[in-house]
């Protein structure tokens, strides 16, 4: 069984928790794109873990975690995460594999990202150097993990990368200039610390699937941050949709058996960009505070709004979702009225249930639902208040996809099987 897990909104849907929950029944968990701009939060007992690179399921014993070729690797952050996990589980050599084709995020990539955001206006990135790293990949001047183990190739890659990136830093008005010697020294140090984890993970994954092992594919961010299908230009630099799993991991799409799409019971996004159902009022602030809606990576407050089924319907189509997971339903507890966008009014006055290519100027048309007291403490679907079930059933009927699980709290045990 091979299952992909993707976010259906603008990220922050709770993928880390769901992957950790599902990982109990899988042998291998593989991250397929993104970098340290993703923060996946997992809570085990009284401990909270935030992973930016290592797959969320690694905390479970005997599971193998894969960082695929489509990920951009901040080795400094990776080493901290390895240390964090090993304090909890013991050594993970042999349980964590990093693809040698993965591109390395360098210190100058972060500098460029920060300079562009502060001096050029930017698009609201996390300033973690993700965009510049992917840019260098496609310019063929990036540094790959495999390069660390070939001295001649490494020196050539550094020279090409530094020539370009030092020039970019100068254009952006940066004061820092990197020398070849300091970069070689830094990469040499990193090489020694990660050498035991490097492998051809595409080969490993395909062998594992052939041997009948179960594999869980973990995506970062969400569908509408996809570099192609997201709300461009306010997007990330990788393919966040389910098709990105095959690109980032080197497995055929024919080998994916199911695709789990995750959505909050409402909508959030971080950074700039259109957001039709945003609540820029006291109710939006209420959702932010009750839902703890602050970025796991940067701590930035998330923008909050009602659930948008026009967006979700398109997202379900793009990803080929077979199962839907709704998270943070408990955040809506106690509200008298809950709204859901079911269509848009366009600037010309017409209405549509199809997602337009431009979200600027659209006005959401809402359907209202009566609220409920609380879903906390529920152990099964039948324990939910009637109004909560009506709300969830409307969502799955509108989207044409069954809700398989609902999350009603932070803990592992607060995930309810719905169908």
Strand order of the largest sheet: 9-7-5-2-10-1-11-15-19-20
Kindly report the oligomeric state of this protein. Answer: single chain
Distance between the termini: 19 Å
The fraction of residues in strands falls at 15-25%
The amount of helix comes to 25-40%
Mean pLDDT: 93
What is the number of E strands?
20
The name CATH uses for the topology of the largest domain is Adenylosuccinate Synthetase, Chain A, domain 1
The CATH class name of the largest domain reads Alpha Beta
Layout of SSEs?
Blueprint: E1 2-7, H1 15-22, E2 28-31, E3 40-44, E4 47-51, E5 64-67, E6 72-73, H2 75-89, E7 96-99, E8 103-104, H3 107-119, H4 130-138, H5 151-171, H6 180-194, E9 198-199, H7 201-210, E10 215-218, H8 243-249, E11 258-264, E12 267-269, H9 282-291, E13 303-305, E14 307-308, H10 309-319, E15 323-327, E16 337-345, E17 351-352, E18 363-370, H11 386-399, E19 403-407, E20 415-417
Parallel strand pairs: 1-10, 1-11, 2-5, 2-10, 5-7, 6-8, 7-9, 11-15, 14-16, 15-19
Antiparallel strand pairs: 3-4, 12-13, 16-17, 16-18, 19-20
Salient structural properties:
4-stranded mixed beta sheet, Adenylosuccinate Synthetase, Chain A, domain 3, 3 domains, 419 residues, Adenylosuccinate Synthetase, Chain A, domain 1, single chain, 20% strand, Adenylosuccinate Synthetase, subunit A, domain 2, alpha/beta
